[in-house]
Specification:
This protein has helices at 24-41, 54-61, 66-71, 95-104, 149-166, 181-195, 204-212, 223-228, 241-257, 301-304, 319-328, 348-363, 377-386, 397-402, 423-428, and strands at 44-45, 51-53, 74-76, 87-90, 114-123, 135-144, 172-177, 262-263, 275-282, 291-297, 312-318, 341-345, 368-370, 391-395, 404-409, 414-419. With 429 residues, it is α+β, with helices and mostly antiparallel strands. Among the domains are: 20-177 and 291-328, BirA Bifunctional Protein, domain 2; 341-427, Anticodon-binding domain (Rossmann fold), CATH 3.40.50. β9 (275-282) and β10 form a beta hairpin. The protein is elongated, with a radius of gyration of 28 Å. The mean pLDDT is 95. The protein binds histidyl-adenosine monophosphate.
């Protein structure tokens, strides 16, 4: 075991790693699909700092949520000369920072609807296991400024299209309406009343949730809790008329789009900011951590962060979990692009000459590399193969004296002698 290892629950992303979740080529491919799909749907990228004032997350995510009570990486800065400190938190989700930036920079003035996306590292101190990390990454979108169900349908369609484009056909879209703040408060009161006499039999977690965040009792992992709550009142029965009609309109749009969904009246999700639409995309192929993406509407959040009243909806999509699903499904991914030429210099003089030759070729836009260690010819050609080089350029003292190099076509296994001053043109064709 080396002395220093990556912190528990984090992972390095490396060239040519066996697991896709650790392999940079797979990340680049997935990120290219993110860029392509967001452009198609008209979403623009936003990048916010990796940490924010702690209070932002208390306010946005909610005091009683698991994220705020158990999972945040909070830290206090060293005191400045006046003895003052700042309280910051590593971003535990992407919605609050995006909305903070939206309010701070008055993006509402720039266009009526802002459609934003991010690719960002997210930090949560959770129990680490396969598919659950302490630093994970999300592709998220937030659409701000539109209240109609059309944008809900677009956001959901984008997530579904993204997974389809990657090659994950088999998905479950769970959807629910969590109502308005007022209708949810009525429901929570009814749920607490129902659960009260059952508390002695419930898990400690659920007894705590009953106090702090009763809605989350429905998310309990304990089978006993689930059995006790099997006949609990349903959120759906408490919905106000507006939330109900919004939901029905949305389901109609999803039908029109041919997007199959499962209505799940128990889907509540772990954030206080959701109103009306809440959804989750799950994959049956990846084991316990099956939620690949989750999102919903948050019509009061911008205002609660100090902005103008602005409706919004978005989702966060776990990149690690998506890569785990793709590998489990053995999806075909595009081949990594090869290089044009690999230089195989023989002897010290040739190795010295390759410094300038590489720079000349690269200056002409030719992707090339070289052996730097004076290895045997077979080892150099093996490396050219490993890099999927189209040509190996072999040269020693004799070739240098004659102003030529030997160009070996790696696929055809043929070789030609090419004058150095014609090499760029030769390789560029
Ligand atoms: P979330 O459901 O907490 O939502 O996270 C979104 C996705 O991130 C999850 O579906 C999962 O794929 C992935 N994820 C979450 N935690 C972990 C973890 N510990 N390890 C690996 N992957 C994880 C949000 O964060 C909301 N901000 C989504 C949102 C955006 N709602 C509206 N806009």
């Amino acid at each position: 075991m080396p002395k220093y290892v990556a912190p528990k629950g984090t992972h390095d992303i490396l060239p040519a790693a066996k697991d896709w979740v650790d392999d940079i080529a797979k990340w680049h491919w997935l990120e290219s699909v993110v860029r392509e799909i967001t452009r198609t749907y008209g979403y623009e990228e936003i990048r916010t700092p990796a940490f924010e004032q702690t209070d932002l997350f208390h306010r946005a995510v909610g005091e009683g949520t698991d994220i705020v009570t158990k999972e945040m990486y909070d830290f206090e800065t060293k005191p400045n000369i006046k003895g003052e400190t700042d309280k910051f938190t590593l971003r535990p989700e992407g919605t609050a920072p995006t909305l903070r930036a939206y309010v701070e920079h008055r993006l509402d003035l720039s266009r009526p609807v802002n459609k934003l996306y991010y690719l960002a590292a997210i930090f949560r101190h959770e129990k680490s296991q396969k598919g659950r990390y302490r630093q994970h990454h999300q592709f998220g979108v937030e659409a701000l400024g539109a209240s109609g169900a059309e944008i809900d349908a677009e956001v959901i369609a984008l997530a579904v299209a993204f997974f389809r484009r990657l090659g994950i056909p088999n998905l479950t879209l769970k959807i629910n309406s969590v109502g308005t703040v007022a209708s949810r408060a009525r429901y929570v009161a009814a749920l607490r009343e129902y659960a009260e006499p059952l508390l002695p039999e419930m898990s400690e977690d659920n007894r705590r949730r009953h106090e702090t965040n009763a809605l989350r009792m429905l998310d309990s992992k304990s089978e006993r809790d689930q059995a006790l709550l099997a006949d609990a009142p349903l959120l759906t029965d408490f919905l106000d008329a507006e939330s109900q009609s919004h939901h029905e309109t949305l389901l109609g749009y999803l039908d029109d789009l041919g997007i199959v969904y499962e209505s799940d009246p128990r889907l509540v999700r772990g954030f206080d900011y959701y109103v009306k639409t809440a959804f989750e995309v799950q994959s049956p192929d990846v084991g316990a951590q099956s939620a690949l993406a989750g999102g919903g509407r948050y019509d009061a959040l911008v205002e609660s962060l100090g902005g103008q009243p602005t409706p919004g909806i978005g989702f966060g999509l776990g990149i690690e979990r998506t890569l785990i699903a793709l590998q489990a499904l053995n999806v075909k991914t595009p081949d990594a692009p090869g290089i044009a030429a690999f230089l195989c210099p023989i002897g010290d003089a040739a190795r010295g000459a390759s410094v300038k030759l590489l720079e000349t070729l690269r200056g002409a836009g030719i992707v090339c590399d070289a052996d730097y260690t004076g290895r045997r010819m077979k080892a150099m050609l093996d490396q050219a193969d490993a890099l999927h080089a189209r040509y190996a350029i072999v040269f020693g003292d004799d070739e240098l004296a004659g102003g030529v190099v030997n160009v070996r076509d790696m696929a055809a296994k043929t070789q030609a002698t090419v004058a150095l001053d014609a090499l760029t043109a030769f390789l560029g064709t």
